[in-house]
Structures are given as structure tokens and as C-alpha cells.
Amino acid sequence: MSMMYCLRLATDKEVSELLANPDTVEDWLFDDQVEPDAELGKSWHGIHFLLTGSQWQGDEPYCFLLAGGQTIGDIDVGYGPARALTSDQVKSFEKALAEIDGDDFKARYDREELTKNEIYPQGWKHSKDDENVAFLSSNFQTLKEFLHAAAKESYGAILWLQ
């Protein structure tokens, strides 16, 4: 089964309420009337690695896809708990990523490093480099657009793998 990365806008009030009442997170995330505001598909781990050089950690705010923010309880919403970023954290993340243009992001791609570090979805060495770069770059642009829209309206974000 694939691990798909999802992002949803949240007001700081919603972030606070979810952190205070984590048992409500599944209802909030999986409301049939609301889809995620952005999806990074299977590219999430590769984007994180290209931003941080780390499998799972890294310096803030570049690590915010997989680290940082606050975990919303210990409820498994697919592949572990969801995480929350406040509007200030989203603004910080957006500002940092705004400084990375498409060419800079593409220059970070290294098939051997992705393979050696077992970056999901793996199989990097069996795909063409231009296809891998296009896959990662397209989803990186989706992330930047999501963060820009969120920061512009002073929204936080809820992030999860399903």
C-alpha cells in the first residue's frame, strides 16, 4: 500500500483545538465533505531529503514535512499521527522554501544518495533521472503553492500520511 502525504489548512484556533482534543482528529481529517487542500503523493520523503539532507530530521523550518510542529496525540491516522503547524511555523516554512527556486531544488537531486538513504518510494535507481526530478519538482511546487496560500491568509496546517 502506498503512503500518500496530505496537507490541510487550519486556523490557529483549529490547531489548538485539535492539540487539546486529539480524539477529534480523525473526524476533522476524514470529513467526507472536505478533501485535503494539497497532496504530495509519494514524493514527500524525497522532498524532505532534498530540503534537509536527512532521512527523518533536519534543520527547522526545512524539516517541517516530517519533523517539527506538534504531534496531534498518538492516534494513527494512516501511517502514524497527524502533525500540526501553527500559522507562524507555516510562514517560516513558506519563507524558507520561497528562497529555493526550481533550478536550486533540481540541483539537490542525487539518485545515489536517495537510494543509499532508502528514501521512499525507493526504486530511484530503476527510474530515469529526468522523470525522478520532474516528479519531485512538480510536488515541491505544489508544496510551495500550498504554503504560500496558507501564509498569505495566516493559516496553520495539519499534515499526515495515509
**Major sheet: size, sense and barrel closure?**
5 strands, antiparallel
Total beta-strand segments: 5
User: Strand percentage, roughly?
Assistant: 5-15%
Radius of gyration from the alpha-carbon trace, in angstroms: 15 Å
**pLDDT < 50 runs, ≥5 residues:** none
In one word, what is the shape?
globular
Largest sheet strand order: 2-1-5-4-3
| Distinct helical segment count | 7
Mean of pLDDT: 96
Q: What is the structural class?
A: alpha+beta
Order of helices and strands: EHHEHEEHHHHE
N- and C-termini, Cα separation: 10 Å
Q: How helix-rich are the residues, as a percent range? A: 40-55%
What's the short story on this structure?
Helix content is 44%, strand content 13%. The protein is of the alpha+beta class and 162 residues long. Helix 4 packs across helix 7.
What would you note in describing this structure?
The protein is of the alpha+beta class and 162 residues long. Helices cover 44% and strands 13% of the residues. It is built from seven helices and five strands, in the order βααβαββααααβ. α4 crosses α7. The longest helix has 24 residues, at 129-152. It starts with a strand and ends with a strand. The mean pLDDT is 96.
